[in-house]
């Protein structure tokens, strides 16, 4: 832990510390209920819509991983945080357009939202050109198989959006390292059903890619169920930072 940056107001830091204590307790309880070791689950603080000063406060409270879903916002925030002397791991978790890859590879440590072969190839080319080490990638999978909502399709041989083809391209890319899977529970699904289905997909995926063991699942509302079904990373925004004024 380090001292908070002077831009962090003490009352906001106290608020974030309280949120962090609550979320850490939920994660610890879920781990013990599931018979899992607490060290198996990484909490990613999803800081979208919140300022760099919140990232600095969270970093000073021991948060090591942060998540963002829009390139323009994330690029500026990452630069501010770096200038202030903090170095959390940045996870890009939002829908990514191919023309944003060159920007994202400059600040992201992990991209969790690769769901097509075309995107994987664009990200690889950007990573080879713009980084000195490979970029960690999680393939985003669709739990309900609805292609409209994003996510590669587990039971599909589609050459662009099938999980098999996407994972194969990432695994073979010089600029990328296949690290695992990411998913969002579909609206209207019971979390247990959604993450149970995801666990089945992850089992099949690991049989082919045993080195890619990360499973990013679970948000503020459903992190307990995700941990029950094997999540190694939970992505927590509103429970930590407060309700966002915009729907994202
Ligand atoms: C915003 C977001 C989160 C965090 O959601 P909360 O409900 O605020 O915890 C997690 N994952 C993704 C992909 C997101 O876009």
Automatic annotation (TrEMBL):
<dbReference type="InterPro" id="IPR011078">
    <property type="entry name" value="PyrdxlP_homeostasis"/>
</dbReference>
<protein>
    <recommendedName>
        <fullName>Pyridoxal phosphate homeostasis protein</fullName>
    </recommendedName>
</protein>
<feature type="modified residue" description="N6-(pyridoxal phosphate)lysine">
    <location>
        <position position="48"/>
    </location>
</feature>
<dbReference type="GO" id="GO:0030170">
    <property type="term" value="F:pyridoxal phosphate binding"/>
</dbReference>
<comment type="similarity">
    <text>Belongs to the pyridoxal phosphate-binding protein YggS/PROSC family.</text>
</comment>
<keyword id="KW-0663">Pyridoxal phosphate</keyword>
<dbReference type="InterPro" id="IPR029066">
    <property type="entry name" value="PLP-binding_barrel"/>
</dbReference>
<comment type="function">
    <text>Pyridoxal 5'-phosphate (PLP)-binding protein, which is involved in PLP homeostasis.</text>
</comment>
